[in-house]
Design goal:
This protein has six helices and 13 strands. It is α/β, with parallel strands linked by helices and 219 residues long. The longest helix is centred in the first third of the chain and has 17 residues, at 3-19.
């Protein structure tokens, strides 16, 4: 377990305790840092009215932690969404989806009134895309999408043996620094066959809680 990730999760709990007097509907993301947050959230049931989950894995962990989960279609408003990220920049724009749940994560982030992102201090980038950018793709369009991404300068790689909770595949795009995140996000949305891309720039995080080895900071 990363102490920095745990410190981010603990700081998120502290933020909720200080800022919310009533139980909230909370959107819950996916990933290792979010899992730590779920474990800590279970210790404070007074914070939670119910949750909505971005993945089957998170749903299972929430239920194992005795935290209520409600289908998203039954929620009128989503006051809070809490999730991790694979990287972020100074504008709080993110790359997400290394765990493969980017579509449901983007839906919840877009609908949330307040999006809190939990990261450790290794995740900041001056230019997004230094690692890779995930794309959720319709299986029949895998080759066609890969050709289009290659024309745009990226190097797509099929995530072999992986299927999203929505029954789609993932193409991970390497060696493709993103200088204009919002424009690139929109451009990818217009390629037929791409269901969702992992650039969270049009709807960035409202707050980033950064975990360090011995502390946490809010950005």
């Amino acid at each position: 377990m990363s102490q920095a990730k745990l410190n981010a999760a603990l700081e998120a709990i502290n933020y909720l305790l200080q800022n919310y007097d009533e139980p909230q509907v909370i959107g819950i993301g996916t990933g290792s840092t979010t899992n730590l947050f779920i474990h800590e959230l279970a210790k404070h049931p007074q914070l939670v009215k119910t949750t909505v989950s971005s993945s089957e894995a998170s749903t299972q962990l929430l239920r194992e932690s005795k935290i209520s989960v409600t289908p998203f279609n039954e929620i009128d408003q989503l006051p809070l969404y809490i999730d991790g990220a694979d990287s972020f920049n100074k504008l709080r724009q993110l790359i997400k989806g290394h765990g493969g749940a980017l579509l449901r994560e983007k839906i919840l982030a877009y609908q949330a009134q307040h999006f809190i992102c939990l990261v450790d201090d290794s995740k900041q980038e001056s230019i997004l895309g230094a690692t890779y950018i995930p794309l959720e793709v319709l299986p029949m369009a895998r080759s066609a999408v890969a050709r289009q991404i290659t024309k745009l300068g990226g190097h797509p790689q099929y995530r072999s043996g992986f299927q999203t909770d929505n029954g789609n595949i993932i193409l991970d795009v390497f060696d493709w620094p993103i200088n204009q995140p919002i424009a690139t996000e929109h451009a990818l949305n217009n390629i037929p066959g791409i269901i969702c891309n992992g650039i969270f720039a049009y709807r960035p995080a409202d707050m980033i809680i950064i975990g360090h080895q011995n502390s946490a900071s809010i950005y």
